[in-house]
Every structure is written in structure tokens, then in C-alpha cells.
Write a structure and sequence with these properties.
The chain has helices at 14-27, 39-51, 98-103, 116-131; strands at 3-9, 32-35, 60-62, 73-76, 87-91, 106-112, 135-142, 145-152. It is of the alpha/beta class.
Amino acid sequence: MGAAYFYHMTRTPLEATLPMLLGKSLEAGWRVLVRAPDPERQRWLDDMLWLRPEDGFLPHGLAGDPRAADHPVLIAGPEAALGDRTALVSVDGAALSPVEVQAAERAMILFDGRSDSAVAQARSQWRALTEAGCGAQYWAQEDGGWIKKSEKTGA
């Protein structure tokens, strides 16, 4: 069903890329789970999304909130289950399984192209997911936009 979309951020930071992708996800009618590796980073994402996009609002919340199930975008740790969410976003190398990628409408892996370790982690995720039969696309920033540089179809 779904595929993993890798976003190699070289020109815009996570603070610009994540709100843009979340906005497009909500426009598609998806409920989104954003995974981040630790509680501090999750709180940072929550705070950042209160401020962006500057021309709108992205309804979101943190896992553990009493109304977490109501939030269209839920920020959680790497152990959070996809549940009824239809899209999954991984930041800072948070894990996602082939089963989750295949169950989701879309899985998105955002990684900082200025970090050698983030690039290495994304390459490892690409190999693991494609070897498990998941479809994958690699998107890079060029000339002010996103360009699809590679695609592998799933089994």
C-alpha cells in the first residue's frame, strides 16, 4: 500500500520542511504520527509547530496528552504504534518497520543532509526497507524545490 519517502534536507531545515509535509498530509486527509527519538526533541517539535507555519495552524499534540487520540498530528517516541494513523513521519533517525511502511498511506523519513551520521542512518533505513520489499523514493532539494532522484518499487 504505502511507500517510504526519504527527504534529504540540504536547503531548508526541519522547522520548514516538517510543517510543509504535515500540511500536505492533512490536506490529503491523513492522520499523522510523528516519531522523534527522545522526549526533549518531541517537546521541541510541539513548540515549533505552535509557531509554524506562520500563515496557518497545524493541529497537533503530544502522546500522553489526555486528548491524544483527537489530534490529527501526534508527536510521539519511537516506540509509538501506528494505530489508526495513516501517515508516519520519522525525524532524527526514529525507527519505522517495513510492516508500518506497508500499512501506512505514506511514510516519510526526514534527514539533515549536513550531518554525516544522519545521511548514514537514512541510507541504512533505505536498505532495510527496500530489502524487506517496501517501495521507496528519495527526494533531494535542488533549485529551490524538491526533486525525485531515485525510486525503488516494492515487492
